[in-house]
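User: I've been trying to design a sequence by hand for this structure and keep getting stuck. Would you show me what you'd pick, starting by listing the structure so we're on the same page?

Assistant: Good idea, let's start from the same input. This is the structure you sent:
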């Protein structure tokens, strides 16, 4: 039987709609407009596309969007001065520094200079620690989007075996923390894992975040398992440019119970969660009830 396709695009539209309704209430009842500042250093074309689409969607849900585009040779001191200014700007509730930064800038230093309460990407060391200890934090957008889709599809995921393939700080590790927080039994696999297919075969939930086109194969998947494909890989096939995930969609969809497509799965949820995080940051900053 073919897998259920988890429609991240439709779910993300629903999340954005809920965010927009909440933003309207904030304006009507409290005269507050959530503000998101995005900082882009240099001219990476993929980053420019992301920043543009983030800005557009921020405005669409009724928030204030501010973009700071800095030259590739911006010094660390200049960037830190801008972050300091945004940290102290009461109209800005979320700050996102688009990664990767040019090589001469220390990413950890820059991210850790953000006010943790405005760190809507959830990469600041304080937020990483809060998430790891199960405390209220800013949660990284991509894993948060994956968790929301899993909860929506399954109801409860408590007790399920989850295998996260990939251990990056921005996807794999926070994903594992979130699954653990929802009482899954979690395995984190990576490039040194022995017999990866066999490890993945034990999973009720597989999260593929490896950055390798179509690596996870259908015969690695336990029948009926849920496959969340985080990968975004641009490949060329039969002379045509194509976007594919880290799982081989066709073979996995034959065995899985449910699967996220690429495009239209995790990707749209990431931006929706960024907006949701900005709204949460704004509510917290103003001592108001947070969205659920
Ligand atoms: P990284 O390159 O930072 O991490 C990749 C991870 O995969 C590493 O932990 C690496 O292991 C592991 N890995 C690499 N090759 C293998 C292998 N052959 N077998 C097992 N594990 C392997 O990537 P990211 O976490 O940043 O991103 C992962 C994917 O998600 C990418 O395709 C990226 O484009 C996509 N992405 C999508 C987003 C979205 O919004 N949908 C947002 C962010 C990322 P090791 O640590 O041992 O090297």
């Amino acid at each position: 039987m073919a897998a259920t396709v988890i429609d991240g695009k439709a779910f993300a539209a629903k999340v954005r709609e809920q965010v927009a309704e909440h933003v309207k209430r904030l304006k009507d009842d409290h005269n507050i407009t959530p503000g998101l500042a995005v900082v882009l250093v240099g001219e990476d074309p993929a980053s420019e596309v992301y920043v543009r689409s983030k800005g557009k969607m921020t405005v669409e849900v009724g928030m204030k969007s501010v973009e700071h585009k800095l030259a590739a040779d911006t010094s660390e001191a200049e960037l830190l001065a801008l972050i300091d200014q945004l940290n102290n700007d009461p109209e800005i509730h979320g700050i996102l520094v688009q990664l990767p930064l040019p090589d001469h800038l220390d990413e950890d230093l820059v991210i850790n200079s953000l006010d943790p309460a405005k760190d809507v990407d959830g990469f600041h060391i304080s937020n990483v620690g809060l998430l790891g200890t199960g405390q209220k934090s800013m949660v990284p957008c991509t894993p948060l989007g994956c968790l929301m889709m899993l909860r929506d599809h399954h109801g409860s995921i408590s007790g399920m075996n989850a295998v996260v393939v990939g251990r990056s700080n921005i996807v794999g590790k926070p994903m594992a923390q979130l699954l653990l927080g929802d009482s899954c039994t979690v395995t984190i696999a990576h490039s040194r894992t022995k017999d990866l297919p066999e490890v993945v075969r034990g999973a009720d939930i597989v999260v593929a975040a490896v950055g390798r086109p179509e690596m996870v194969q259908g015969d690695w998947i336990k029948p009926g398992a849920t496959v969340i494909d985080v990968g975004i890989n641009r490949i060329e096939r039969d002379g045509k440019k194509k976007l594919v995930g880290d799982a081989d969609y066709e073979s996995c969809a034959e065995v899985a119970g449910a699967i996220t497509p690429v495009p239209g799965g995790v990707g749209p949820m990431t931006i929706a969660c960024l907006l949701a995080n900005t709204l949460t940051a704004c509510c917290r900053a103003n001592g108001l009830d947070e969205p659920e």
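That's my pick for every position. To get oriented when you compare it with your attempt: The chain has two domains: 31-115, 141-268. The chain has a mean pLDDT of 97.
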